[in-house]
Amino acid sequence: MPSQLQKAFRPPPESCNFCAGIRSVPRVSNVDPDDFERRYAYGAGPVIVTDATANWTAPEVFDYWFFGKIYETYGARRGAARCQFFPYKTGFRSLQEALSLEEARVNYEPGTEPWYFGWSNCDPVILKVLREHYGRPYFLPRASENNAVDWVFMGGTGLGAHMHVDNVRLPSWQSQLKGAKEWILAPPPECYYSCDFLSVVVQTGDTSKFNLKVPLIHL
């Protein structure tokens, strides 16, 4: 069955126990990997780790112009061209177009259109450059898998992703490198009366874990 149809005909959960009783998102720091694995890693509940980016250079180095330069240098490679690109509500047709904005729009000057987009980096050369500035979060269980594809999302106020389900195989983590972002997590329709909607704002330096294997809907 095509992937889009798999999402449309997503099987319902056997029960709503995976989200029942979750009413807030804990914030932790200096957490031991074994403790994280036991308490948070594979459960449905989200968690925010506040100190995972402390030794990374990405918060200082990464910005719109950094990515523009990287993809100007390496973006024509065949590997980079195969990566996924999500324009959301911008109308951008490609990552190259999204990374070619005028400075006024990048800086959200009055009268310019907002922007927010994301993409997967599946090119090993670009991945090597990016991972010089961040690494595997220290709290992840020692036996957990490491994906060869990383995702980047960036933009400012006024736009964001639509409410959606991420159909992924493993739990995921996301680090907020600049600014702040609001996550809204919703249970699937069949669990609306058993589980709460959650809203959480992640700040610069926060790393959030969401178990996207279970059918939490988010924007």
TrEMBL record:
SUPFAM superfamilies per the UniProt record, alphabetical: Clavaminate synthase-like (SSF51197)
Record InterPro entries: JMJD6_ArgDemeth/LysHydrox
Gene3D superfamilies registered for this protein in UniProt: Cupin
Superkingdom, taxonomy of origin: Eukaryota
Protein name in the entry: JmjC domain-containing protein
Organism: Culex pipiens pipiens
